[in-house]
Every structure is written in structure tokens, then in C-alpha cells.
Amino acid sequence: MTVAAIMAKPVVTAAPDTPVGIARSLLRQARVRHLPVMERGLLVGIVSDRDLRAARGETVPLGKIMTRTVFVLSPDTSVRRAARLFRERRFGAMPVLDGRELVGIVSVVDVLRVLGE
Q1: How many domains does the chain have?
Q2: How many CB atoms lie within 10 A of CB 47?
Q3: Tens-digit pLDDT profile for residues 3-42
Q4: CA-based, 20 to 30 A from 74: which of 9, 17, 56, 80?
Q5: Domain containing residue 69
């Protein structure tokens, strides 16, 4: 099984100039914990609910707090490989890119759900 079969899509995203307060609202509304940051159609970072809780102020732009080095998966990555990467790298979620296009996101919870079935 590949991550294409379990990834969440469409993905809720934000721009680097999105204020922390708006990003928090986006996460709450979508009931997710990770928000890829996109600029001109390209993935430039990611923020987690933890990053947003640690941010000082509601108006801080995501570009100031986002993780810029984002480890990504391709749609054909096996779920087992994704599980290993989550364990080794200690990420909570990884965006799924097909070439340069963001097509989904996979979280640890998604992988555990599949492996537990």
C-alpha cells in the first residue's frame, strides 16, 4: 500500500504572510494539526499546532515561525517506508508531492490507522 491511498486531500494550506491567529483558526476548522505553507504554488515550509501555540502574538506571520526544511513523500512511497521515516525523523506529518505539486499530507495517525488494521 502507498501513501497515495491514505493521504488526506485536499490539503489546507496557508501563505508565509498568514498571521498566526488566522492559521490557528484554519487548523481548528479543518480539524488538522499541520499546515503546509505555500508561496506561488510551491511548498516553502510547514507549521504544526505546537509551533502556533509557541508563537508570541496573533499577528506574527507564518514565515517567521515555519519550519523551512520540509521532508516530503511521493505518492508512491510505501506506508511501511513512511512509518520508518516517521519513527526515525520524529515528524508528525509529511506533505505528499507529485513533482512540485502538493497533492496530500500524511500524518503519523494515518499510518498507525492503516498498520493497525
Answers
A1: 1
A2: 24
A3: 999 999 999 999 999 999 999 999 999 999 999 999 999 9
A4: 17
A5: 3-116
